[in-house]
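HUMAN: Ready with one sample?

ASSISTANT:
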Amino acid sequence: MKRIFLFFCLACGTLLLQAQQYTLKELVEGRFSAKGIGQMESSADGMHYYQTDPENRAVIKYSYATGKAVDTLFNTRRARECTFDTFQGFLVSPDENRVLVYREREQIYRHSFKATYYYHDVRRNLVRKLTQNSSKQMIPTFSPDSKMLAYVADNNIWLAKFDFDTESQVTKDGEINKIINGSTDWVYEEEFGTTRLMEFSPDSKLLAFVRSDESQVREYQFQTFNRELYPGFYSYKYPKAGERNASVELRVFDIDSRTIRKMDLPLESDGYIPRITFTGNPDELVAMTLNRNQNRFDMYFVNPRSTVAKLVLREESNYYIDADLLNSIHFLSNRFTYLSEKEGYSQIYIYGFTGTLQKKLTTGQYDVTTLLAVDEQTQTLFYEAADESPLRRNVYRINIDKGQPQKLSVRQGYNQASFSNHGKFFVNRFSDTRTPPLITLHDATGKELRVLEDNGQLAAQLAAAQLPQKEFITVPAADGITQLNGWIIKPVRFDASRKYPVVMIQYSGPNSQQVLDRFGTDWYYALANEGFVVASVDGRGTGARGEAFRKQTYMNLGVMESDDQVAAGRYLASLPYVDGNRIGIWGWSYGGYNVLMSMSRGNGFFKAGVAIAPVTDWKFYDSVYTERFMRTPQQNAAGYADGSAISLASRLEGQLLLVHGMADDNVHFQNSVEYSRALIAAGKHFEMFFFPDKNHSIYGGNSRLYLYEKVIDFYRKNL
């Protein structure tokens, strides 16, 4: 009997070893993460690029065409009076005579940071601190003639003149949590993706900048513990939906006369200026504005000396204008590009400087997702499109005058390209669900010059680990008509005669996508080791399927998205190998919000859900994002009520694990606190876990592994 029992244990151990070819710890710690390449910064002419050496001691110039090093612009071991061994990042002037490097980087929000910068004169091989100012610097910006550098310190703009070895303070009214000059506030950075609103004119005689007055914006505070005996508080300005925004003004500093002029820009007091730039003409300062509802975009040409603004382009939408599309505007000598959804799909348009539409450059029932680069010399545009499928991306070039697109990407899957200045060369990153990223360098015709990274070692590791593959599916939406894209991962050692529990992974936010033919090995592959089917479905409102599909959740966030997850779950329950009584749902941020909505609107369909850092009522979230899709609570009371997880808390069914970082500056811990209050009032029992002093990413130390261990254990117990 003992022999039989021992044999049984050994056999089970062998099966376990065969199934467990990878672990959660390996997934979280990056064993199966793809390698990338070092930062490649294009030279001004687009023919060369700059990279650091592996030790971050030197800035080296390479030829795109050959890949060979042609010069070393800076080396800490050789530069005179260099007081440091390594640096964290760099910036090269357009004429390559100056290199700026930084150390002691201090993160502010998601993208912004301040640091101590050092200036290296390439011709003299001499290093010195950029400024003797004790404050760290932000967003350093070289003038086009390379003779000056503007930067921000303590919310004020400073100007360094290299030829005279002098610096001067341009603005003096900057104050933390009150006045910002040149840089941006929290909500601009998070929702418009910009940290700098400061630009030199092409002739280097003027410096345009946006001044933000956030003194009337209410502060948000959260407690910081940091193992201190007496914990502190962090305070910053955070405009919530329907509350006061910062007011913004466009100003120009005349460098020779040292005067500042306010531009006469027609903008409502609560409107936005998400982007400024110049055309090639120093007398044409471009201001791009959105009204607070974000359904009207205006672009003005402003004379920086007379201050007079001329409306060049206006677009209005029945829904909203996606501010990301503004990054597609490129100025040529007498015309500009514009990416618009006005005919149902985002396509490229060409306008003259008078605002006259010259032509629609691309056509089709698909979205152009990004305008990547412009080569003015050849009048060629480069863009990315979801033309074959919403799941995939291709890279194209097209001549403005001839209008014949040419596909530059040759592999079917997900292609992303980053171009050198003027579109002379590009780096293509290709992957699909089965192929780790292949990173290649190409010239403007698409010719592959060399492979930069093939991730061959990772491909071998994946084969040995036997990670299950994603299988793409289509699923009916809650309306019974629309077909939704999805994928399924089947458990390790899948047996079609068994019935498996399911965990649905989703985000569901406007214009987002989780279902893509792109490589990735996330934590949820560990669920397959635990005997779960893992599935993901992009519901209505998600991206790359045209404006009507993307914007149908407008003014009613949370309703269609949750209904579609329930409908997708019911489809999965109909599969012969799925146990329809053991289906769970998972999500983070917007995905966490939709977990709560789905468990409240699904009549008990989901047996268990994990919501991480969820919005629980849109009145708690920031003005720019929320109002883009919902307008203000004052304008859309019914939409806010219908989309409030707090209002629906009494209808929650199933076992819930609620997780939040206590120092989340994005989706505040307040969301989970108030949701807990509503569940308690409704007599709904749930589990909750918080991460001390962790932000929206809940990252660092052992946090991620601990989080996912807890999540998997929760599903193991409840499904």
About this structure: The mean pLDDT is 96. The chain has twelve helices and 42 strands. Residues 2-19 form the longest helix (18 residues). The two ends are 34 Å apart (CA to CA).
